[in-house]
Amino acid sequence: MQIDLLRPRSDADWAMLQAAWRALEEDADGSFFQSWTWIGCRARERYTDPLLVRASDAGQVVGLALFNRTAPPLACLLLHSLWLHETGHPPQDSVFIEHNGPLIARDRPDLLGPMLAAALRRGRLMLSGVSDAVRDAAATIGQCHTLITRPAPFARLAGQSAADWLGGLGTSTRYQLRRSRRRYAAQGPIVLRHAADLPEALAFLDELAVLHQARWEARGKPGAFAEPGFLAFHRALLVRGLPRNEVQLLRVAAASTVIGYLYNFHWRGRVYAYQGGFDYAGAGAHQAPGLTCHHAAIEAAIAADRTCYDFLAGEARYKTSLSNGVESLHWLAVTSGLGLHDLALTARRRFGRAG
Fold it and tell me: Under CATH, which number does the domain 2-150+329-347 receive?
């Protein structure tokens, strides 16, 4: 087994990386956030100092991880930082990666430690939104500092009907879902519409952003779309992912009344509920637009034989109420034991995704 550290720079380098990444995807069990659709989105613009860790066995690529290197913020701090599938620049990283980690062939979990160790020789590792397995591998190669751990609730859907899923929720949640649906249905039939093409998807995304920002700004918070790079990234992601059926914009309406929008990712049977925009200002008594939209989307996911509806990291009440499982995601700094001075500064990064 051979591990190489490469610096993709030219168009040819990036084209070769795309081909290798897409090929490895077929042999790996990675998440959507480890796919080239996500990793490669605006990569040439975002990764200003890229470092690729490539593991090969008998000439076959079996592991890939793309880091971006950033210099210490102050001259007295010694270590460069290597950000796994991130840039290290908060405005760019507002897109918020989760279910992250090196992409490795499904029969080579042993590569996690060696690949991370190879990168660690070039600087401190910043590993965002990674699993227990990545955390445990990181702990074997250096000093692994957990900056934050967040729950990622999900709803198991495999083998369930919509009635099964609903019946497994708490009594109060079932009551709220049914009551909200009845209140909206009094205005007309509730219809979930998939954006049919790219222009409609982009229009849905813009409308979602307006509702999302209105909700968060009313709370005195900036909202995810306050950062211009966030919308630019996702407009580009739609161009990449919509033709592959990996990205989806949904509108839920009662007759002509829009209840809200959902922006979801699809990957190998799993739905990632990434972002939403809901009309709270127009909601009447006992109408819960967010719950009603997710309710409709989960029913559609069950009808499409999806295996999981993943609410991603966060402790929002709606996530835990609609879920029947949870896993942990970790934000880590890994060092070789030198230059720990700026861990506190790093811990003050924005770890949350407004959603």
Answer: 3.40.630.30
